[in-house]
Amino acid sequence: MQITRQTEYAVRTLLELSTLPSDQLLPTRVISERQDVPEVFLKKTVQILARAGLVITQRGTQGGVRLARPAHEITLLDVVTAVEGPLALNVCLAEGYNCPNQPHCQVRKILARAQNALVKELSRETLADIAGEEAEPVSDL
Domain holding 29: CATH number? Predict the structure, then answer.
């Protein structure tokens, strides 16, 4: 599983918005420039975030985007699933999938544990947590 660039842009956009007063709108043009994201692509991403209830948009000369909820209420899981859809490391873990091997499949059990750990970690981190952390070097796994 690899998270798409659109999810990365969504996270960066929401982090940018999390630094603003809750009632302040930020034009997509400004976000695009600050985050070095193509504006056309950013607008599509913002539409997805708006449909998911993570941002509120307002059109017009005084328009822009703002968070729909406080940053401490928006988790990384909210963002990832808004853009990517429900997380499933394998088709057998997708909601509604009925595999005949499910009761005795050891691989599924391992993947389910891994998926649960991922969901738990993404649920634990909020935009406020991420925005408040000092930049630390990231090591490759």
Answer: 1.10.10.10
